[in-house]
Amino acid sequence: MRSDRQQSAPLGLKIAAAAGLLFLHLPLLLIFVYAFTTEEKSYQWPPPGLTTQWFAVAWNRPDVWQALTLSVQVAAISTAIALVLGTLCAAAVSQTKFFGRETISLLVILPIALPGIITGIALRSAFNLAEIPFSFWTIILGHATFCVVVVYNNAVARFRRMSGSLIEASMDLGADGFQTFRHVILPNIGTALLAGGMLAFALSFDEVIVTTFTAGQQQTLPIWMLEELVRPRQRPVTNVVAMVVVLVTLLPILAAYYLTRDGDQIAGGGK
């Protein structure tokens, strides 16, 4: 008699799963197909022909490179800020007890729970009130609000699974705070921080709504794509750039998944 693990799924469930996957990923496949079409002005199906000329066109357009460079810089700095603040918040909430701890935890995760347009309006109002001109740094501040949450969620979950006796043993053996962090805490939470950083980078790289309210006249890559769709010049170029966005955001998410799938195994947890 076969075990439950070995039993085959019902046919209806397989069909429903396949239909759900097609619904989610078929639009992505269409983006890839239209990146090779010979039709410049419309999305004609089937494509009248296939060509790779649009990759060269996209490569030689300076506006694409400017938007890409800005997106990478914003995502990298926002992720760095999130790694520091998110880790410190996670350590404080998970490793210590103080009045209002749960309230602070709620306030930390609130920005990602709110609709992006609410966050964007709030930030724009705050910048206007403080007379802060919109610039590269206002985009980073906007992105950091939700990037911190991603890192915090990964770090706090790992902190709570880590045995407090490891830190106590390190201190008893004469290690100072920095040594304890470097040799005990960081090896245990390192994969969680790396995964959180990758997810934060991916979210920042393709953010549109908050960027719209905080960027001023600057264009990140998603904003550039939106402008190109509204006022198209060479539609296939937009699809080529969309392929880049898909790859840049997909690879960190896959890496984060593989890094955290065995996250319940904490060094020294069984000692």
TrEMBL record:
It is found in: Cell membrane. Gene3D superfamilies: MetI-like (1.10.3720.10). The keyword Transmembrane helix applies. It is a multi-pass membrane protein. GO terms for cellular component: plasma membrane. Residues 68-256 form the ABC transmembrane type-1 domain. Belongs to the binding-protein-dependent transport system permease family. CysTW subfamily. This is ABC transporter permease. It comes from Allomesorhizobium camelthorni.
